[in-house]
Write a structure and sequence with these properties.
The protein is mainly beta. The chain is 8% helix and 44% strand. A hairpin with a 3-residue loop joins strand 3 and strand 4.
């Protein structure tokens, strides 16, 4: 089990890149509108008016108490030997995301005519991943080795599509419910005995790979 923290740089980078550019970035806290000429002086090279409305630009809002997102991860497994060269393993894997950031975009012009679109970053979203993993493995024996694995999983998050959609908890865009993988190698060894052709006709390996999985969720637009 482990706890892993992420950075919240995405919110700050987006606010900077969509706004005034790296060379002119500056933070203003607790400012009132309209901004004073001193507060606005660093924006002289940007074609935006000093007085509202600011409907031609996107305002970026970052939570005043922004906290680092983190994930909890845990797993457990059991393994059973089947003879001397085979084994069966069953595992459970879980991941829980907490305090996640997700860009949201809204047009608030109806509520405040001084602004158009506003981008903001809720800092209270969650996600989850739960998986049952089964694996059958046969070590090299009598020229044959094989690996079969099956995973049933479910991934849930908030709004993994467009920031214009309301945040709704549902299956994520990356949710693959069933995933089956198989691979084998067969060392065919000595097949024929013919003087002068041993290197050409014998000691070939035959490899195979099978992959099958369910499809991604379909997002309907329109």
């Amino acid at each position: 089990m482990g706890v892993f923290y992420a950075t919240a740089n995405t919110a700050a980078i987006n606010a900077e890149s969509y706004g005034i550019g790296a060379e002119g970035f500056r933070e203003i806290e607790d400012a009132s509108l309209p901004l004073t000429q001193t507060e606005f002086s660093f924006l002289d090279f940007v074609p935006v008016g000093l007085n509202p409305p600011f409907t031609s630009y996107v305002a970026d809002i970052i939570p005043s108490h922004l906290q680092l997102p983190y994930t909890l991860q845990w797993s457990t497994s059991i393994e059973q030997a089947i003879g001397s060269s085979q084994s069966l393993t069953a595992s459970y894997v879980g991941i829980a995301g907490r305090r996640l950031l997700q860009l949201q975009s809204r047009n608030i012009n109806a509520e405040n005519p001084d602004f158009g679109y506003v981008d903001y970053y809720p800092n209270h979203l969650t996600s989850s991943y739960n998986a049952l993993q089964l694996k059958y493995q046969r070590s090299l024996s009598h020229g044959l080795q094989a690996l079969f694995s099956y995973t049933w999983s479910h991934t849930i998050d908030y709004g993994s599509t467009s920031p214009l959609y309301p945040l709704m908890r549902a299956s994520s865009d990356q949710d693959i419910r069933n995933n089956f993988q198989a691979a084998f190698t067969w060392n065919m060894g000595r097949i024929v005995r013919h003087y002068g052709f041993d290197d050409l006709l014998n000691h070939w390996n035959l490899d195979g790979r099978v992959s099958a999985r369910s499809g991604f969720p379909i997002t309907l637009y329109g």
